[in-house]
Amino acid sequence: MMSTINDVSRLAGVSKATVSRVLSGSRGVKEASRQAVLQAAEALNYRPNMIAQSLLSQSTGCIGVICAQDNINQTTSYLYALEKQLSQHQKHLLLRFANTSNGVMNSLEELTCGLCDNVLIIGARFPLNINRPDVVLVDCLDSEGDNSIQFDHAFAAETACHYLISQGRRQIALIHPQSSGFADQVLLGYKHALEKNFLPFNRNLVFLDNTSPSVAVQELVNNATTLNFNALLVSDEQQAAARGAAATGV
């Protein structure tokens, strides 16, 4: 049988009100009482009713996350770390996927109608006109302001190139379609790495137009004898780099 707040109250020797204050994180509870409640809750494997807690605290305890990219693997690669951090703060993650502006807005409307306290929108590569205190845009294209967090794509590209060069890979091909976003920053980081290692810039090794990544890889493979590349820098693992690498022995 599932334990109730009454069971915790009896075992801890305190009132139900004290149990509620301890479990909701409220202040003004003696340390001895707080420890007694926590030990009783653990002994009874007590799980508070989330709906009742939400009504009491006026907080859902949930953070909404909208993954807004066609390439789901790219966005979800760090969801595990995010969920772990939220769990440490007794928060829950509610996930939605959307790859259009309308899809994001529909998901946002759903999540902010009582399901979540705040929402993160991750990786949108299309314009979003959102300026709300309960929404944070993470790595979204053309988003600036207090509610926006951007990655340093130039630094990331430069760091990746430095690593490849340190491994003896000095002929680095870059594939980063404009539709992937932040192409100018990625190219800047790529060039900085070449300059710092006294390597020439070869325009024939750079693919920034909206050609399919697989087409770009095939072009590299077809011209491998003249281009003589020995490494690929791509924005994610789904850009057919593996086939190109296997075909050229990279």
UniProtKB/TrEMBL annotation:
<protein>
    <submittedName>
        <fullName>LacI family transcriptional regulator</fullName>
    </submittedName>
</protein>
<dbReference type="GO" id="GO:0003700">
    <property type="term" value="F:DNA-binding transcription factor activity"/>
</dbReference>
<dbReference type="InterPro" id="IPR028082">
    <property type="entry name" value="Peripla_BP_I"/>
</dbReference>
<keyword id="KW-0238">DNA-binding</keyword>
<keyword id="KW-0804">Transcription</keyword>
<dbReference type="InterPro" id="IPR010982">
    <property type="entry name" value="Lambda_DNA-bd_dom_sf"/>
</dbReference>
<dbReference type="GO" id="GO:0000976">
    <property type="term" value="F:transcription cis-regulatory region binding"/>
</dbReference>
<keyword id="KW-0805">Transcription regulation</keyword>
<dbReference type="Pfam" id="PF00356">
    <property type="entry name" value="LacI"/>
</dbReference>
<feature type="domain" description="HTH lacI-type">
    <location>
        <begin position="3"/>
        <end position="57"/>
    </location>
</feature>
<dbReference type="InterPro" id="IPR000843">
    <property type="entry name" value="HTH_LacI"/>
</dbReference>
